[in-house]
Design brief:
83% helix, Arp2/3 complex 21 kDa subunit ARPC3, mainly alpha, 0% strand, 6 helices
Length: 170
C-alpha cells in the first residue's frame, strides 16, 4: 500500500516540478521530461505498475499544461508500449535495457505529442522540434535515467522486502 502512496506523491512532485519549476529555471528551451523518465524506468523494471504510473503522471501533466487533455498520457502510454514491444532484444544489462527503454519512450512520446498538437490545429515546426527538442532529449533523458534507475531499484527492493516481512508477520 505504501508503494502506491509513494508513487502518487512522487508523480505529483515530478509533474509540478516539470510543469512549473523547470520552465522558470531553464526557460522555454530544452527541459528533461522528469515524469517520462521515472515512469519509463518503473515500467522497464515492473511492467504494469509503470504503465499505471505513466497514465497517472501523464494526466497530471495534462492538467498542468496547455496541451489537449489526454495527449501526454497517450504519448507516455504509447511510448512505453512501443518500448515493451522492442524490449524483446537480448540486452543482458538491466541498466542498459532501461536506458534504451527511456530513449524509445522519449522518441515515441515526443512524436505522438507533435502529431497531437498538429491535429489540435496548433502550428508545429517539425524541423525545429526535431533538432532542438527531440534529439537533445534522446540524449538527456537516458542520461538522467541512470541515477533514476538506481533510486527506483532501491525503492523497489525496499518495497519487496517490506511486503515479504508483512507476509511473514501475517
Amino acid at each position: 500500500m505504501r508503494w502506491y502512496i509513494l508513487s502518487i506523491v512522487s508523480l505529483l512532485v515530478l509533474a509540478l516540478t516539470e510543469s512549473s519549476l523547470l520552465p522558470a529555471a531553464l526557460g522555454s528551451n530544452l527541459r528533461p521530461n522528469l515524469t517520462l523518465i521515472v515512469t519509463a524506468v518503473v515500467a522497464a523494471q515492473l511492467g504494469s505498475d509503470g504503465f499505471a504510473m505513466a497514465l497517472a503522471g501523464g494526466l497530471l501533466l495534462d492538467l498542468m499544461s496547455s496541451v489537449p487533455l489526454g495527449l501526454t498520457s497517450l504519448s507516455l502510454l504509447l511510448g512505453n508500449a512501443m518500448a515493451s514491444l522492442l524490449d524483446r532484444a537480448p540486452i543482458p544489462s538491466r541498466l542498459f535495457r532501461t536506458i534504451t527503454w527511456v530513449a524509445i519512450v522519449t522518441l515515441v512520446a515526443q512524436g505522438v505529442t507533435l502529431v497531437g498538437l498538429a491535429i489540435d490545429g496548433r502550428s508545429v515546426d517539425v524541423g525545429y522540434a526535431t533538432t532542438n527538442i527531440i534529439l537533445p532529449l534522446v540524449i538527456v533523458n537516458p542520461l538522467l535515467a541512470i541515477p533514476t534507475y538506481g533510486i527506483v531499484n532501491v525503492i523497489i527492493e525496499r518495497a519487496r522486502r517490506e511486503a515479504r516481512m508483512a507476509g511473514v508477520r501475517s
